Amino acid sequence: MGRLETLADEILACQACPRLSTYLAQIAVTKKREFASFTYHGRPLPGWGDPDARVVFVGLAPAAHGGARTGRVFTGDSSGTFLFGALHRAGFANQPTSVHKDDGLVLEGAFIALAARCAPPANKPTPEELSRCRPFLIREIAALPRLRVAVALGKIAWDAILRAAPELGLETPRPLPIFGHGRRVDLGRLALFGSYHPSRQNTNTGRLTPAMLDAVLATVRAELDTSRARRSSYRR
Predict the structure, then answer these.
(1) DSSP labels for 175-204?
(2) Which of 30, 50, 174, 225 is 20 to 30 A from 186 via CA?
(3) By three-state DSSP, how is residue 8 classified?
(4) Cα dihedral sign, 150-55-205-97
């Protein structure tokens, strides 16, 4: 069993945050009316994607009736529909849909991780809960040897990556850079990009549009192409 598989098992079994474990159990019983016939996953979520990923996308937490229901982050909710549509257009996913975890969606050169592994009430994990989850993020990133870019989907994910950076041996600018959509920060062997989270709060209000996310992903692609060209020149 590989590092990512072993770590996924640990995450699935985690019960370190009683408030979140209780909330997951509650929503798995009460459910949402449109999903009344579904059996909810109701456990923490590991990241998923290509083990040879060159870019990791870090979200906030599973959606209560999305990932916490389907068992795969950004799957079965509007945020996932928005994100995977963009990943498909950018060549990081083989299809633009995210209905359930066995729907044939494959990430290509990309991995998706989370700052918090359980759906939190009001979508707001506490600082203590984020701190308990941070080792999972650190270990997932460390298990992706080809990684060159991290994309933070929102400020909480941005801060989580920066707080994880020292334990990953990455350069950490001081003072810590402030989150911004489209912002790039050099962390040494990893470049960090910021994007607004594809939540309904952002996409329904126009704060984040498909064109805005596409622009970030185009910049990420350019970064990866530059990194590949640089390594090829070193081998000559």
Answers:
(1) SPPPP-TT-EEE-SSSEEEEE----HHHHT
(2) 50
(3) helix
(4) negative
Distance of CA 216 to the CA centre of its chain: 15
Mean local confidence (pLDDT), 189-194: 97
Q: What is the mean pLDDT of residues 19-27?
A: 96
pTM for the predicted model, two decimal places: 0.95
DSSP 8-state code for residue 39: P
Q: Where are the domains of the chain?
A: 3-235
For 141-164, write each residue's pLDDT tens digit: 999 999 999 999 999 999 999 999
Asked whether the predicted pLDDT for residue 187 surpasses 70, the reply is yes
> Would you state the pLDDT for residue 227?
73
Higher per-residue pLDDT: 232 or 26: 26
Q: Diameter of the chain by CA atoms?
A: 61
* Whole-number Å distance between alpha carbons of 167 and 202: 31
The answer to whether 58 touches 161, Cβ cutoff 8 Å, is yes
For residue 173, whether the previous peptide bond is cis, meaning omega lies within 30 degrees of 0, is no
Integer distance in angstroms from the first to the last C-alpha of the chain? 36
| The pLDDT value given to residue 234 | 46
Q: Side chain identity at 31, as an amino acid letter?
A: K
Overall CATH class of domain 3-235: alpha beta
**Calpha distance 127→163 (Å, rounded):** 12
Which residue in 166, 144, 102 sits closest to 7, CA to CA? 144
**Contact between residue 60 and residue 118 where contact means Cβ atoms under 8 Å apart:** no
Question: What sign for the dihedral angle of Cα 172, 54, 115, 6?
Answer: negative
Phi-psi region of 218 (alpha: psi -120 to 50; beta: other; left: phi over 0): alpha
